[in-house]
Design brief:
This protein has about 400 residues and is of the alpha/beta class. The chain folds into two domains: about 10-180, 3-Layer(aba) Sandwich (Rossmann fold), CATH 3.40.50; about 190-410, CoaB-like (Rossmann fold, 3-Layer(aba) Sandwich). It has 13 helices and 19 strands.
């Protein structure tokens, strides 16, 4: 299965002769399983029509005007920036590369490149002398330093009649290069167990106790771990989020079900990431029939659920254990207390209660703590935040594994 499966890709088309390759690129990205939206600059429309790219992408093309009220669903540059998993500028002219390097934002494509937290890549296409000019090389170096991937250019004959570097790579090569961005092996061969979503604690056949967790963050973490090469098992409470690709999902309902599933899997786990919002308590008694509304008050006795995170940390051969802490106040203090009390390796804390972040939102921000350090992951989409979190987990897991191996070697 392609690493581009279910990825959201923006293809930016600028005004170069290689724009004739862009429809084939879009088609091949879709063949790889990606959803593609196209953004064109005004100059790109001098080389290829928006209608062609609309036909191959199966979506209306977003054109250069930043304030196009007639654009599909009025999707703004900010919405597009948040929607994308990756932005690929192909072809990327010398002019557009220069504008990116200087942070200009005077049309839709340049603006969303500044606004997005997704991966950004450029496929340069220009005359070989323009490519070799010091200004272009410096601009490309600036972009690379900022984390922009540079695909190519290839060498060969050019439309101007000259021969040399400056050709945009072929669409098949660009698809492979873009796939590689999602094919990190930071956790290659590592077994990762993730919990996600809420649990539902039944009161009677029609009522339960639950919480506002959507499962979005946990699913994003599972997907990011799979992208990093891990063998991922996701134990999920009830959600409406589509199952991630390349992840084995174990659906559960209650905290007891989740505890049982986790403890069954944990012996074969290298990293455990407890993202689920597990109910702390459950009704002491399940009523076989629906409770009738006969009294003004109803008392339900609750009993404590098993603590999954603590159970994993205290298992016979505990994995590298990562917890989540959702707090409404004193975020760092409460998170550090939970880290120490439960004896886990790392904790990711986020503030809840705000309408536009955490829980049901598509965005989040995290404070990461381990025994020695604290690091903030700034607000971003949960997809991007999950990738950043997995990078932090991989770094700490590898450091701990290396330390263990060194200690064994000196025994």
């Amino acid at each position: 299965m392609s690493s581009l499966s279910q990825k959201r890709i923006i293809v930016g088309v600028t005004g170069g002769i290689a724009a004739y390759k862009s429809p084939d690129l879009v088609r091949r990205l879709r063949d790889a399983g990606a959803t593609v939206r196209v953004v064109m600059t005004a100059n790109a429309e001098q080389f290829i029509t928006p209608l062609t790219l609309q036909a191959v992408s199966d979506h209306s093309v977003h054109r250069s005007n930043l304030l196009d009220a007639d654009a599909e669903s009025a999707m703004s540059h900010i919405q597009l920036a948040r929607w994308a998993d990756a932005v690929l500028i192909a072809p990327a002219t010398a002019d557009f590369i220069a504008r990116m390097a200087h942070g200009l934002a005077d049309d839709l494509l340049s603006t969303l490149c500044l606004a997005t937290e997704a991966r950004v890549a450029v496929a340069p296409s220009m005359n070989q002398r323009m490519w070799q000019h010091a200004a272009t090389r410096e601009n490309v170096a600036v972009l690379a330093k900022r984390g922009v991937s540079v695909f190519g250019p290839a060498s060969g004959s050019q439309a101007c009649g000259e021969t040399g570097p400056g050709r945009m790579p072929e669409p098949t090569e660009l698809v492979e290069s873009l796939s590689a961005l999602f094919g990190s092996q930071a956790l290659g061969g590592v077994k990762v167990l993730v919990t996600a979503g809420p649990t539902q604690e039944a009161i009677d056949p029609v009522r339960n106790i639950t919480n506002r967790s959507s499962g979005k963050m946990g699913y994003a973490v599972a997907r990011a771990a799979a992208e990093a090469g891990a063998d991922v098992v996701l134990v999920s409470g009830p959600t409406h989020v589509p199952y991630p690709e390349k992840v084995r999902v174990i659906p559960v309902i209650s905290a007891l079900h989740m505890h049982q599933a986790v403890m069954t899997e944990v012996a074969n786990t290298d990293i455990f990431i407890g993202v689920a919002a597990v109910a702390d308590y459950r009704p002491a008694e399940f009523h076989q029939q629906k409770i009738k509304k006969t009294n003004d008050q109803l008392t339900i006795k609750l009993v404590k659920n098993p603590d999954i995170l603590t159970a994993v940390a205290k298992s016979v051969k505990p994995p590298f254990t990562v917890g989540f802490a959702a707090e409404t106040e004193n975020l760092e203090a409460h998170a550090r207390e939970k880290l120490m009390r439960k004896g886990i390796d790392m904790i990711a804390a986020n503030r809840v209660g705000d309408a536009d972040v955490g829980l049901e939102s598509d965005e989040n921000e995290l404070l990461i703590l381990d025994r020695m350090d604290t690091k903030r992951l700034p607000r971003s989409s949960k997809r991007q935040l999950a990738r950043n979190l997995i990078e932090e987990i991989a770094t700490r897991y590898c450091a701990k594994s290396t330390s263990k191996n060194i200690r064994r070697a000196h025994r």
